[in-house]
Design goal:
globular; 16% strand; binds 3-hydroxypyruvic acid; binds magnesium ion; 12 helices; TIM Barrel
């Protein structure tokens, strides 16, 4: 577990990451040595199993903190991601305060929450059990995704939930929830994103967003977004392959 990631998140450091979707530990290792501040391991979309996620974490940690986006907001997915050694979790589609409170509870050991206690990679398979259990609540980042119109409507009460370390906006799901899937530049979608940004900045909650490339993410950095994910493994591979070929064919 990376002892600095949650601290850096809370103090508002600029943390630039990328999304890992492929079950290829070599790619996670390569990214982890490329200067990213964190890796967003995507257990929600795509084909990563829990075993795949553990292999990605083994390749990328400790040199690069890894946060796992869990498949769904369930106790089991959250505890398993943390037990295989994630530095934090990203919970998708958190649309109201009750869901946010449950996510925090499942990610934190008592007395803060209700996380169940197991022995797995995070606990050094038992060898570092005591140290891990003492530090886990302090070091585990809990990030929720605001990516639905209902979440935007409930943003004030969601941010009232104690234990939310960061908000990661999902522009694509947000646009879908407004009947405009993928239309992230639509004025109404942008208006909702701005509502969430203002609410997070006002309360000094770390805010992040996904952009497909550097050009998409650069303006967000200027607007105070600190937890950003730029591109993903598949996009980068595809873009590089097409660029090399087009250079040879022109
Ligand atoms: C979305 O845009 O819906 C996302 O979840 C981005 O990560
Ligand atoms: Mg999403």
């Amino acid at each position: 577990m990376n002892l600095d990631f949650r601290k850096r998140l809370l103090q508002g450091d600029l943390l630039t990451g990328t999304i890992v979707t492929l079950s290829c530990p070599q790619i996670a290792e390569l990214f982890s040595r490329s200067g990213f501040d964190w890796l967003f391991i995507d257990g929600e979309h795509g084909c990563l199993s829990l075993g795949d996620i553990q292999l990605l974490l083994q390749a990328a940690q400790p040199q690069c903190p890894c946060v796992v986006r869990v498949a769904a907001n369930h106790e089991v997915t959250i505890k398993q991601a943390l037990d295989v050694g994630a530095d934090g979790i990203i919970a998708p589609l958190v649309n109201d305060a009750d869901t946010a409170a449950r996510v925090v509870a499942w990610a934190k050991y008592p007395p803060l929450g209700k996380r169940s206690v197991g022995i797995a990679r995070a606990q050094g398979y038992g060898a570092s059990f005591a140290e891990y259990v003492i530090r886990a609540n302090e070091d585990t980042a809990v990030i929720i995704q605001v990516e639905h119109v209902d979440a935007v409507a409930n943003i004030a009460s969601i941010l009232d939930v104690s234990g939310i370390d960061g908000v990661f906006i999902g522009p694509y799901d947000l646009s879908a929830s407004m009947g405009k899937p993928g239309n992230i530049h639509d004025a109404d979608v942008q208006h909702h994103i701005e509502t969430v940004r203002q609410a997070c900045l006002k309360r000094r909650v770390a805010l992040g967003i996904f952009g497909v490339d550097a050009a998409a993410v650069a303006p967000f950095i200027k607007q105070g977004y600190t937890l950003n994910a730029v591109g993903m493994d598949t996009l980068m591979l595809g873009q590089s392959a097409r660029r090399v070929l087009s250079e040879l064919k022109t």
